[in-house]
Known about the structure:
The complex is a heterodimer.
Chain A: E1 5-7, E2 10-13, E3 19-24, E4 31-37, E5 43-50, E6 53-57, E7 65-68, E8 75-79, E9 88-95, E10 105-106, E11 110-114
Parallel strand pairs in A: 2-11
Antiparallel strand pairs in A: 1-3, 3-8, 4-5, 4-9, 5-6, 7-8, 9-10, 9-11
Chain B: E1 3-5, E2 10-14, E3 19-21, E4 24-26, E5 31-38, E6 44-50, E7 56-58, E8 64-68, E9 73-78, E10 87-95, E11 106-107, E12 111-116
Parallel strand pairs in B: 2-12
Antiparallel strand pairs in B: 1-4, 3-9, 5-6, 5-10, 7-8, 8-9, 10-11, 10-12
Amino acid sequence: xxxxxxxxxxxVTQMGQEVILRCVPISNHLYFYWxxxxxxxxxxxxxxxxxxxISEKSEIFDDQFSVERPDGSxxxxxxxxxxxxxxxxxxxxxxxxxxxxxxxxxxxxxxxxVL
Amino acid sequence: xxxxxxxxxxxxxxxxxxxxVKCTYSVSGNPYLFWYVQYPNRGLQFxxxxxxxxxxxxxxxxxxxxxxxxxxxxxxxxxxxxxSDSALYFCAVRDIMVTGGGNKLTFGTGTQxxxxx
Lengths: 115, 117
């Protein structure tokens, strides 16, 4: 069964450093997402991406964040200058089509720890 | 704005008994509703969804959910719980009236289900 994959599974970084989280969505999916889950809290939407551009972003997704689909398979989330409060589990997701009723398939997550 | 409430942090049930995990939602228009399950150190796995039509939706692993528009609820149910069902369950909503095409899902805070022998 196809699945979303994410690397690395755990990333430790120093405050102020740049990190890139990587995702490989399901191959025939066209819509991509990033969510995050701070420990013990709810899953929060960050950004959605379709047709090589951002479709929607939350207030969390400020200028320190960016997304990119550098090739036909990868989807990345970059945090330019990490803060302590960026420590969270980051989930990538994808869905078949840009329809709100399509379920989103989630990857296993990258745990980001900012020291 | 769209929102979801899961009023129970934890639900305990004996194996073989029926289980219910509660979810209520708030949207401007009509909702698309989803249930996901998260096992330890794993991502979110899709269980089932409600789009339109029959209010009782059947999903994976014997789970089902009932959409109730008047009560704005979408409770997850299973007739006979298994120990292996123990996990964290999330309800999520998408308001179909929201334009912009972002398909943002709004999640509840999650309910920890514990099934004991």
